[in-house]
Description:
The structure holds two protein chains of two kinds.
Chain A (H helix, E strand, L loop, with lengths): L2 H11 L5 H10 L4 H19 L2 E3 L2 H16 L11 E5 L26 H8 L3 E6 L33 H8 L5 E6 L5 H7 L2 E4 L19 E6 L2 H11 L17 H4 L8 E5 L9 H16 L3 E5 L7 H16 L19 H12 L2 H14 L4 H22 L5 E5 L15 H6 L5 H6 L3 E6 L8 E7 L4 H14 L16
Parallel strand pairs in A: 2-3, 2-4, 7-8, 7-9
Antiparallel strand pairs in A: 1-3, 4-6, 5-6, 5-10, 9-11, 10-11
Helix pairs in contact in A: 1-3, 3-4, 6-7, 11-13, 11-14
Chain B lengths: L8 H10 L6 H18 L34 H5 L5 E2 L2 E2 L8
Antiparallel strand pairs in B: 1-2
Amino acid sequence: MGDVDRAEELARRLEDLTVRAIADGVRSGALSAVDVAEAALARIGRLDGDLHAFLAAPREHALEQARSIDARRARGEALGPLAGVPIAVKDALSTKGLATTAGSKILEGYAPPYDATVVARLRAADAIVVGKTNMDEFAMGSSNENSAYGPAKNPWDPARTPGGSSGGSAAAVAARLAAAALGSDTGGSIRQPAAFTGTVGVKPTYGRVSRYGLIAFASSLDQVGPIANDVRGAARVLGVIAGHDPRDATSLTAPRADYEAACDRSVAGLRVGVPDEYFAEGLDGEVEASVRAAIAGLEAEGCVVRPVKLPHTRHAVATYYVIATAEASSNLARFDGVRYGLRVTPPRADLRAMYGATRDRGFGAEVKRRILLGTFVLSAGYYDAYYLKAQKVRTLVRRDFDAAFADVDVLVSPTAPTPAFRLGEKIDDPLAMYLNDVYTLPASLAGLPSCSVPCAPTSAGLPIGLQITGRPLDEAGVLAVAAAWERRSPAKGAIPALARTARR
Amino acid sequence: MAGSPKLDRAQIDHVAKLASLSLTGAEAERLTGELAAIVAYVAELDAIDTTGVEPTAHVQLERAPWRADAPSPSLSNDEALAQAPAAADGGFAVPLFVEG
């Protein structure tokens, strides 16, 4: 077989290869990392013009890593658990020498002088960082339409959103442009795109994964996590990126579990809670039917299913948008045209005028909206009424979960109230866009581990996600339930038609 | 809560100044309407009884350990300045901010 044929063949095989299969193949020598990288780059070249999942995927960057992996194997060195696995990284994560914009014009051309801890850990595990993925500007959005560089598209229907804010990461995995990706989740930004694209997305417990090098949006909520085309792949990536990092003061020392082993665990006898409040007005009928079928599937696996109450769920949106914007207004003060990124200096401008002009030009509409809302709720006269009040309601949301977890081991629900909506459908109504996050926000406010795993699609073929939320630090329990469902899920292994190459 | 305060243009201009955002008139006008709707929505929190409830500023932090107070290498001066829009004399250069 010629080189071109071989590359073409491997590009096709990437449609079905999991994280584990690629790593096993590269470690054993059955696959070369360079061939895998070439295959991923070929898929990106062919499909990303339509999907816009990537903001950057420099060929040499990927190949250089791949060559070094192959060379180390040739020397007889042992390779890491992600050997040769092409992984896409959300553009909110700093990558040394590789442009990192967080989807914003204010960081156009910025090349960080260091790697985020999670990126350094991917590299140390011998993954191939194939590129940086599209996202809502500073992770503020649920549709990718707030990207300053134009939205990523959903591979299942390019007229629809892949979700947000980690929409590029999810689209890249769904179309098999990468076997896995990193996203970040502040209020659902890993789970909702995973649900919309038929991929597996995991938001770990707050503090489980280092935030060092993640461009901050809301520091008490932000958490990095994996998106992959199967639960086991997400578990393997989580095992690589999780763990204490002295560079993040909120990083926890709690020991990691064996997340991959958890995928083989029986869930018989596990108590699964179904919160009534997540099956309320606004939930799409097809989403409800699909999620209820998945819950029945878990029951068939031996889970004990029972209803639970999370009474403050309906206040999560208001609570979140006060707290997250307050934190964002403070975090985004650093973008001032002094140390990096864009600077706009009007004629005869003093320092303050330079700040104002730079931030007005550099930030998009949603970011300005959130900075202003956050500044308002923190301003004199309104702090107690909005910010402090929201923090108290956050405590009530946490207490809801504490009470529920006294009776059950995990909670299951829809990840989002609807399947992927059309690009443009909600962009003119910020509040309607926020309300789409109603099911993912509570676990974010409580810092709980939570994942989305595909269940049966809609009649039109759009993916639907089952959300599984666990106790603090119980990622293993969440993954065990996700894997048990995945084995039965009719969506297992489903690939969008546009990502399927015609067989010869 | 201070009732649902009417978010007007003057308030938006004030908040924009606090946030160092030089908005155009049309932008400020549009944002006034959008933010008023969002603030009216979040005012629903007002009705929740939070008597005696402690605020949550951060989850899980109680389990995080302190780092040893020991010096470690950081970015060099050149690396730190490499991305700056303007640098001079080994520092970040900015427009005038103190009247001479």
